[in-house]
Amino acid sequence: MEWSEACEVGVWHHVSVVTIILVIHRVESRYFGLFSRFYSNEYMFYETKRMEVLLGIFCLCIVHRFYVASDSFEQKYKERVDEVLTEVMNVRQGIYDGSTIAPRIGFIREAYRHANEFAVCGLGVYAKERVKIWLRDSDAGLGEFRNVHNTFLHYWIQGGILGISLVVFLWGVPLYCMVKNRKYSYLIISLVVVVVITNSTCILLDLNNSRLIIVLLSSMFYFHGDVFYELEKS
Description:
- This protein is mostly helical.
- Helices cover 77% and strands 0% of the residues.
């Protein structure tokens, strides 16, 4: 196997495992994401240290395997799967109580019911209070929540068409540039997919401790996408 192919396989392995863990338990995914990005950077910017990078990828793969095979992971996976299946059945009966998929479907349902209030122009500074009122008065039992736990929906409610367009533009432009120039970066695509998934289940782009890094990554992918492509190609 060529060096570039080995690195590509290693990076994709990290991304796939981190994504799976992200869906199951977000706390552990932070640590795996940190290590994955570290070794991805090693591959991208220190290609001369091939043995060190290969050794790091090998060690990280072993850690991944041990974690997936551990009893704690198996138990958490089983609990989360059972919880999701139970909530799916509850949603079919009109019950949106839970902590995974059910309340998020309930948020979309409530937003759809009030779409005439924000669909075009948004609610601006009144969005936060209006969302609280919607959830409090909802017949789906969502009164304990304070936001819609969805970045795309959150910005649509706040800014209307302009708000949702801003979020789509933020992550759509780097992908558009790759398609237009026919220069595809696996690292950019994988990170965009992970960020889109996480922002579909929480409002990361609206949190002070994550907004900057998301905007920074998007800007870096847009202005330096060719650099990532050339580094992965070399």
